[in-house]
Amino acid sequence: MPRALLLCALLLACARQTAPDKAPPAPPPAPAAVDPCAPAPVPGDSSRALARADVLLRCGDDAGALAIRFALLRRDPGSTARAYALAVLAHESGRVGDIDAAVGELPLTAGARAVYRLTRDVSAYLDARARRPEDPGKRDGPIDAAALARDVAAALAVTADDPYALSLALRFTALHDADPRERAAPICRDRADPLLARLRDREGAAVLAAACGRIAFRSADPVDGRRRFARALELAPDDHAAALAWAAAELAAGNLDEAVRLYRLASAAPSPRLRYAAFLGLGVSHARRREREPAEAAYRSALAELGLDTATPAKLPPELTFNLGILLADAADPAARAEARALLRAYVDALGADERRRLRARILLRELGD
């Protein structure tokens, strides 16, 4: 056989030996996507359960997140950390009454019960005080400061070394100090700092460090305030409430770059309430840096967190109505100026609006030809 023909025969034989008898099997189908918001049992592991609660908050399922927090407290009825977290979430979701009844049936320790009650009442009191200039009658009615002071003293009597009770007591005390350096700051130095040095509860230590960070800023000591807030976020990097409080302190101090950084950090919070506050603060910070487009984007993100838009300006929170209206009033676009007019009219008509802001809104409305 000629050499060329022999070579062809060998090549054909090799090809027949290496050729597959059949086509390779098709790849397995991709697993079906899992809906993170779908109902699921509460994980037995506490860390996974907490992560699940955060997912449900992002899904807008406050009731599901509350159920997990309640289950965790039921598992450990002596935990002041879980009592604190449940009370915070109940307050943020507006479901305090429902949760109160359920918590009342749990066999909590005196310390856990005191921290739950104190967290609930101090949170409502701080909110009411913050709203008073613009909307004094909203949701939580007036709270008796004297009665709350007695609750603070009672809670500290049964939880002397509890970081959650002490942080709430500090925030309440600082609110009523003409100068926080007189009472609140010494408590941070003489009582909170020794406790922080020996605490094993990192989240509790973060809450307490952030409380003292607020007091340091109010005491005109921003260097100490930054040190304390940085320590809080080092202990609990996901403490978005601490990031939000730090951002507000930096905004008040005029440190706008740092305020922007911290508000962005806080905007990743699972809680819609915290995200709303973060985007609102971010908008104010950008506006003060004269960055109109980022400010508007932040305000509209705040609107989205509420599930609202400017088509119904009377339904918006007054602080958002005013800030977005002021920003849009300076725009060149006729549609934006029309939107500004609607927002500013709504603010002027709002019950309990701040009078100085109301006057500024009226002046701008005149300038807009309204």
Beta-sheet strand percentage?
under 5%
Number of β-strand runs: 0
Largest sheet, in brief, is: none
User: Could you tell me the mean pLDDT?
Assistant: 88
Alpha carbon gap, first and last residue = 104 Å
Total helix count? 18
Fraction in helix: 55-70%
Overall outline: globular
Contiguous low-pLDDT stretches (5 residues minimum) are: 5-12, 133-141
User: Structural class from helices and strands?
Assistant: mainly alpha
Question: In angstroms, what is the radius of gyration?
Answer: 28 Å
InterPro entries: TPR-like_helical_dom_sf (IPR011990)
Protein name: Tetratricopeptide repeat protein
Biased composition (Pro residues): 22-31
Signal peptide: 1-19
